[in-house]
């Protein structure tokens, strides 16, 4: 069954562009019809890039977040924090977002409509390559090259290409402005004065970094430790595409694991070292190969993954995603290419999930070195550092560089500050070389990068000595390893991976099924009285009570004529079927399959009921008093459905879906 | 014990203004020191009105929200939704927030510093009344009257009083501007064009209202049903005061219960009708009395509470708050006075909790009638209505008013539209009167309120007839009953109600305790190895594993010399004590009491351990293999601590806290 199911899912999702599009449409139609999500503010014609989670979507999201908390925060004893979305400008200046969190935009020069410059160039190249049959081999190669380097193009280069190819506004064919950077943060103003600019945070991470000092103290001034945060983040996209994947407001779940840069080993790495899954290291990408299955322990051992802690999180992310129901064959860990990675990053891997839109980055796992803590230390003047106390004081020899500011001021005037900073920033080797030169020649040539030129330093301008010091501790800025989860993207991919169709019994229509694992399913079981009568209603109530006590979410599906008490007591019962003769049990099963409900309890007697499993459609017969605990066992994962088939009599499955 | 505890809490919290202030300071100091919360962006000197939840605060919040979901969403089968914070202007124009969600502000005319006008006037009056000994009785009465009507003063009245009393800017004594309205929403811009204004939502309710149509369909087109949403809301306060109670970003949990306005009974009302608690109806407030204990069923029966559904939610809110640990004697339900309530509201009660700041509104429970759905129907043009199908079609006689636009246009030109609308809006009685006049005199005087005057209508301008129609259904706008929870305020009050101090064993210091119920406690138990050795460490690990499996959050507290493996495996262990000789068990208990951890497991042998209850400090001895399930039972509420004292041998408690 498991294999058949996988095959079905694949055949549903994995073919040509056209069939992928059709598959996506049927997933999205089902999701919208059953209110997994709703375009936000729909009655006002909506806002691009904003979506609501409706009741089942909300339940799926809550389940995913609860599991995330269990899998990461609780099992790893992380320190969870919860910071505001509104963030003052200074914090996002320090992090670099005010300056660099931009996309390049062009405007229709007549209507003012805005477009992402790279999207227009990309669409143009793709279109040409697909449709222009007269394209020369040389031209085709050029266009392909542009597609490959698109992310690296500067505003000038993009603008030049747009001009060269005569690209115009897609809707009006009007000329376009030159590309210019548009900051993707939603801007606002804090307080009434209008003098305190603020932004809606583009990520939750900064809230953790600015709290490092307190969290380090809370953790007993010890490394390593991890902090975590779940919350909304915002991105004012220029023109959102790709439906639920590219949105303007989304839930992030982020971990910042702080670690001594000299020791990135991880004591629990052995727990994940044997995992084997698709990895796509830099070398394979550059040489045009595809992702390969690798054993995580080997990837870390060979240095393909930079360090154990990064590897540990890759393994934990793999376990997290596959537990949710992400297909392991459509999940890969792709290493960032050198030009993709920030200059300070030590290594970076994305968990990419394949869906109808292609391979989508859903989790980023980056070793960001000491960059963030250093940036906030510099801007705030508060040292975000860790201490390692030595068991015994260590005697160390240290180079001490003392610039003589008066002399430097006379010599360099306005540039004095840059020269002083450059001198102080010399490492030991440079300083000792200069010292030798000053001693032998009385002066030394010195390159000041902030001035972009060499200057001459004389021995009056600086003293360089070596001094012995006793040190009692080492003070350092921790490295941070950051797994960052786009919860909405994971959930969307999960929908695609869980969706399949199968013919109805009569064969006249295709029925939709979401094969969510119980962990994720929005409702764990449905209760159906087979026919309407007072006795069955009483039984349904008893079962409902037992399910509530067991903490199992359920829904009662009744037919229209059932007396109103049940309707009242359970106001959210589902009754969308025929009002006249009641809905056939088969239709009711189909409705519940479409919500991904794993188990259905049908009340067909006053002593026992049947329990139907969604994907196999098999049924077992269970006593009324046992049924809640049976459902609890299989949804909690203590028992499997196979165990239950063994333990309880099966119910004639031929008639199950009638 | 329970009584002693209550007495202690009260004596801690309930005295003079000075002792209330001192009590609050010790609560806040403890909360900040143990990172229940952290002023946001502290290293950048913070932002007024923004706070982070640190690790224990975050856990408390997660527990409160999980219980809210259990108590309301699951038990009542509500439809939960999750909508974005970014909201386009049109939605908040419809709801009235763009126009009316304002506070009156004055500016220091020289420095531009902003103040809330009512705060300045309030401070002035209070100060005078407290400190000016020469105040005449007449003047004192005037100031008291101002304090009483402060919320109702217009900008002009406020400005006049500020001028009259010569109130200046508090910091500089500079003159102040006239008061003017400042909109409290954080404004932003959606998309890159700058042409789509948006706001950060001031409440979550609007996201539910705009989805009414889909949710009604999802519920099988049946009333009543409730939708719920938990999420961030924003309020750009002019000058936030009152610490954690008045913040610029906060978590709301809101329910919108949609109901037929002709039937606001509730089938489960009997479940709460016998509850008795402090209620403070309008009449008691107006006549200067205080809140009184009432039986909810009687309050609804006598019409003090408008209807059963409103009463049902008042009862459920009472159960929710007291289950969290809110002291029932410092909780009251206060009815809004007529002038406090929106004109459309049918009735409104606030759950107010008394803390060191006075009585604080923490939950608002309002019958908002059909206002919100009507407002969005009008603005969006989408009918947000419900249908009641009749079993048999009903024959009804209806007045049909048909304005003759051509004639009206000739007579009223530019005012035609207003006249037409006024004609169409006539009720049956008015229309029949006009019909009579038109028939007898050929014309009728008619007041058009949008024109503010009478016009003369002739019998050419309108036809009025009575027609018989068969109606198959009734179409109506549902009423909405809205319980709205300020989660942060509830949590802050809970901190105050749970805090008490008791002397250390040596009597030389006061130790802080948060007596959270297990439901709320950030961590359910701590595991202490009594002394450091390999065997106890193994036992602690075994217990930790069992606790994880049972889903109990715990913390291991070790002394400094414990071997590093444990530290590594459980990176978040707490070790803030002495590095040399280890921390005494008494100090470790005190640390855990201050976090409100209800149970502490001390490993003092390899076969059994002690379990200590926080408030009584009593201990029992339990076998190692049983301890996780014992803790689970008492934290889940299946058993009480008294049950456990009965079942297990008590451990000599004299030495417990040594």
Describe this protein with a few key phrases.
homodimer, 658 residues, alpha+beta, nine-stranded mixed β-sheet, six-stranded mixed β-sheet, 29 strands, globular
Verbal overview:
2 copies of one chain form a homodimer. Helix content of chain A is 36%, strand content 26%. Chain A is an alpha+beta fold and 658 residues long. In chain A, the strands form 8 sheets. In chain A, strands 3-10-11-21-16-15-14-12-13 form a 9-stranded mixed β-sheet, sandwiched between helices. A 6-stranded mixed β-sheet of chain A has the order 25-24-26-27-28-29, sandwiched between helices. In chain A, β15 and β16 form a beta hairpin. The longest helix of chain A has 20 residues, at 55-74. The model of chain A is unreliable at 559-581 (pLDDT under 50). Chains A and B meet through β2, α3, β3, β4 and β8 of A and β2, α3, β3, β4 and β8 of B.
| Largest interface by Cβ-Cβ < 8 Å | A-B, 97 and 97 residues
Radius of gyration of chain A: 31 Å
Assess the beta-strand content of chain A as a share of residues: 25-35%
Mean pLDDT of chain A: 89
Describe, in short, the structure shown.
Chain A is α+β, with helices and mostly antiparallel strands and 658 residues long. In chain A, the strands form eight sheets. Chain A has a nine-stranded mixed beta sheet, with helices on both faces. In chain A, strands 25-24-26-27-28-29 form a six-stranded mixed beta sheet, sandwiched between helices.
